[in-house]
Write a structure and sequence with these properties.
single chain, two-stranded parallel sheet, 4 helices, 2 strands
Length: 86
C-alpha cells in the first residue's frame, strides 16, 4: 500500500556490497546525499509507534552518532543473533 503506516517498522541496515566503499550510514551523514536520506525517511515515516533499525555491530557507533546528532529519542538494544539461532 503506497504511503501506508504500520504500528512497527523494521529497517535492516546491511553491509555495503563488496567493492562499494561507501556504506549507507556514511551517505546519511553527508549533506550531498538527498536520495539516501529520502529513502530512509520514506521507510522510517511508515512507523506509527515503533521504528527498529537493525545494523551489524561494526556500524553501531556510526548509527548512534547520526541518531544522537539528530536529537532523536533512542533506546539501544544489542542482540546476540548467534545465540538466537543456536
Amino acid at each position: 500500500m503506497k504511503g501506508g503506516e504500520y504500528d512497527a517498522v523494521l529497517l535492516e541496515i546491511e553491509d555495503s556490497p563488496k567493492g562499494n566503499r561507501e556504506h549507507i550510514l556514511d551517505l546519511w551523514r553527508s549533506p550531498d546525499t538527498s536520495e539516501a536520506k529520502r529513502v530512509l525517511y520514506v521507510g522510517a515515516s511508515r512507523a506509527r509507534r515503533l521504528l527498529v533499525l537493525a545494523t551489524p555491530l561494526r556500524h553501531l557507533e556510526t548509527l548512534r552518532a547520526i541518531l544522537e546528532g539528530a536529537q532523536l529519542p533512542v533506546e539501544y538494544i544489542e542482540v546476540d543473533t548467534y545465540a538466537l539461532i543456536n
